[in-house]
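Q: Structure tokens for this one, please.
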Amino acid sequence: MGHTLAEKILQKHTDQEITEAGQIVQCSVDMVLANDITAPLAIKSFKAMGATKVFDKEKVSLVCDHFTPNKDIDSAEQVKVVREFAEEMGVTHYYECGEVGVEHALLPEKGIVGPGDVVIGADSHTCTYGGLGAFATGMGSTDVGAGMALGETWFKVPPTIKVNLTGTPKEYVGAKDFVLNQIGQLGVSGALYKALEYGGEVVDNMSIEGRMTIANMAIEAGGKVGLFPVDQKTMDYAKAAGFSGGELMTADDDAVYERVLNIDVTNMDPQVACPHLPDNVKPVDETSGLKIHQAVIGSCTNGRIEDMREAAAILKGRKVDPKVRCIILPATPAIWKACMAEGLMEIFMDAGCIVGPPTCGPCLGGHMGILAGGERCIATTNRNFKGRMGSLEAEVFLSNPAVAAASAVAGEIINPAKL
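A: Here is the predicted structure, written as tokens:
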């Protein structure tokens, strides 16, 4: 029987023969991740196990990105716990202050995760690394605490949905639109504990950053992982980031899929996920005219340099509507510096944007852009649950960076092509 990508990667991390979806297998892990919210709980479980050292100080990443710079005493105490644990264990990949970025942008950028890896993280968007061909998935802090101690965990081999992306996209339509459209078709639980495996000519031509944007939102359809084949483009990206290892990898021709979803992107317009679920997806023109109070461009979904360039192309020579707060958050220090070097920061500032440090802040309603009751925001983030970005009476719409930037200028949701 041929293997899917998920099965192939897991097979390389277990001595058990993988024969079918649903099988329970014990696998070694290449990286264990936690952040300033989840690491303290993982550390508590780690110590409750009686563990005294992490299984490999090079294979644990602790990234304090959600409430940093610390917004209050509680968040400072959280980071203090993580900082002291990292020092005690000699964890190599500990990040805060000027080195920290949004974890799912930071780790690939530093070559810490890469093709063929098995990665577990106490954060649901750990699946982002599937864009690099890694079996990466979010887990609870207790499981991650055990992973830090043992260097292994168990998985139920997921059945796979194959998603074929074909056609030629219009201007202002890209990876975020493809994945929103897919989530709209599958629903928020349509891929529950399943692997999403992407292919087709659109994927072949897509950047690694675009692939990570799609993999990032696999969880929004309930997916266990979102996986892209490892092609030469992937290998080149990983090597340039400093990752050693990995190999070209595709699914077997006779792999067994639970379902195949074909999406022709040729006539697709920019997509917008309306409140209060990521599967409430409409073409942008069906939401046009809705007044907004805030736009957020950043996060682990769309805070990379490609996203910054896309937003800047819209904002250049224009002004943000005076009644709108447009918040720009480059996802890592390196992306911040690239924005400076390319002149994007000047464009953002001239347009009247607020440019902040790398942080997850507003995406989860933490800080740096909380919504009041009755306010409406368009964001390049990944979730629009009720209360996600602040008040339960606020509304969050999800879009690509061009739509968010154009909407900030117009003061209402708009198709960039009509700006």
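A few notes: DSSP finds 14 helices and 18 strands in the chain. Residues 293 and 323 are 6 Å apart (CA to CA).
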